[in-house]
Write a structure and sequence with these properties.
Organism: Brooklawnia cerclae
Number of helices: 13
InterPro entries: Glu6P/Mann6P_isomerase_C (IPR019490), SIS_dom_sf (IPR046348)
Strand content: 5-15%
CATH superfamily of the largest domain: Glucose-6-phosphate isomerase like protein, domain 1
Order of helices and strands: HHHEHEEHEHEHHHEHEHEHEH
Family: Belongs to the PGI/PMI family.
Pfam families: bact-PGI_C
Structural class: alpha/beta
CATH topology of the largest domain: Rossmann fold
Number of domains: 2
Strand order of the largest sheet: 2-1-3-4-5
Shape: globular
Radius of gyration: 22 Å
CATH class of the largest domain: Alpha Beta
Keywords: Isomerase
Number of strands: 9
């Protein structure tokens, strides 16, 4: 039997109490960013390092690449295969993101060990004493000891350190933490549906298959993460794609039948468009307009997430956290979210 969305569950104290751990995990994102930032520092003299190239491996490597790409003055690669590209050597920086104890896969360990053997400068975010930290141990290794297991928090802190090396734009972990806190405040389970944008998003997706689109590189990255969370929490199809592919999907949506009876007819779930447009370019604005027009022509519901102000990373955190809260409330409203995690 396909579960039906029940919006009364979103304000039911007993139901919300049964999902307290999930909601607390989301609310603690800002605190985890601060914890990781407090332990992170660069060794004396490290700020003078000027690598020939940068290779990023591990969890959230693509997020770090997306942050660095607009300003990084040297070649940059997000690498997912075991080992390293043949050209990587002692003149290059290898950034390793393994913020959890269970991130030490054999492929990642092989990559880290190879980087250490080649004499690469290593910037490693991993728990102290973990297999990755041990494999990366060398005189050219800068260890960022992680404690929370939050891969996004570690990525934010690593980006802030790379900014000090002149490889990334300005990233302030405290501002990113404040962005997460602001979303947590307005999305709190103690706020009822009438004043809670995350619960409102869940209601907008309660009878739909979400199509999630981001209007910039980082918004697109957030869209992919949100689509993953929507699939996890609801068990439904959720698609994230670029504007061209999303437009093609929208063009093939069947027109709504205004005479269909949802109680007697075999009515299929319709899509809903979730827009994450942080309005950073005229190109994104044009794509947003096109997708809105297609949605209107096909009678497709549109849900919007606002990026707010701040740096690109701050806006990414804001968009992602709104989507994760919405996905969690969607699972709660459907009753499909028992045991799921954001």
């Amino acid at each position: 039997m396909i579960p039906e969305f029940d919006d009364t569950r979103l304000d039911d104290p007993e139901v919300l109490a049964s999902h307290d751990e999930q909601l607390r995990q989301l609310a603690g994102t800002g605190a985890r960013i601060r914890i990781e930032a407090a332990d992170a520092d660069l060794a004396a003299g490290a700020t003078d390092v000027k690598p020939r190239g940068v290779v990023v491996v591990g969890a959230e490597a693509r997020l770090v690449r997306a942050v660095l790409e607009p300003v990084c003055p040297v070649p940059l690669v997000a690498w997912s295969l075991p080992g390293l590209p043949g050209w990587v050597g002692a003149l290059d920086l290898v950034v390793v993101l393994a913020s959890r104890q269970d991130d030490s896969s054999s492929a990642l360990l092989a990559t880290v060990a190879q980087a250490a053997r080649r004499g690469c400068l290593l910037l490693v975010a991993a728990p102290a004493g973990s297999a990755v930290a041990d494999a990366a141990s060398s005189r050219t290794t800068l260890l960022v000891p992680t404690r929370t297991g939050d891969v996004m928090a570690a990525a934010v802190v690593v980006c802030s350190l790379l900014n000090r090396l002149g490889l990334a734009p300005e990233v302030n972990p405290e501002h990113a933490a404040e962005a997460a806190d602001m979303v947590a405040e307005v999305s709190s389970p103690h706020r009822d549906l009438s004043s809670n944008p995350a619960k409102d998003l869940a209601c907008g997706l309660g009878d739909a298959d979400p199509l999630v689109w981001g209007g910039s590189v980082l918004a697109a990255r957030a869209a992919r993460r949100i689509a993953e969370a929507l699939r996890l929490h609801s068990g439904r199809h959720a698609l994230s794609a670029d504007a061209g592919e999303m437009a093609q999907v929208m063009r093939h949506v069947r027109p709504r039948d205004p005479f269909a009876d949802p109680f007697t007819d075999d009515v299929q779930r319709r899509p809903a468009l979730v827009l994450l447009d942080d309005q950073t370019s005229d190109v994104a604005a044009g794509q947003t307009s096109e997708l809105r027009s297609l949605a209107e022509a096909k009678s497709v519901r549109v849900c919007e997430l606002e990026a707010g102000s701040g740096t690109e990373v701050d806006r990414y955190v804001t968009l992602l956290m709104q989507g994760l809260y919405g996905a969690t409330y969607l699972g709660i409203g459907l009753g499909t979210d028992e045991g799921a995690r954001p």
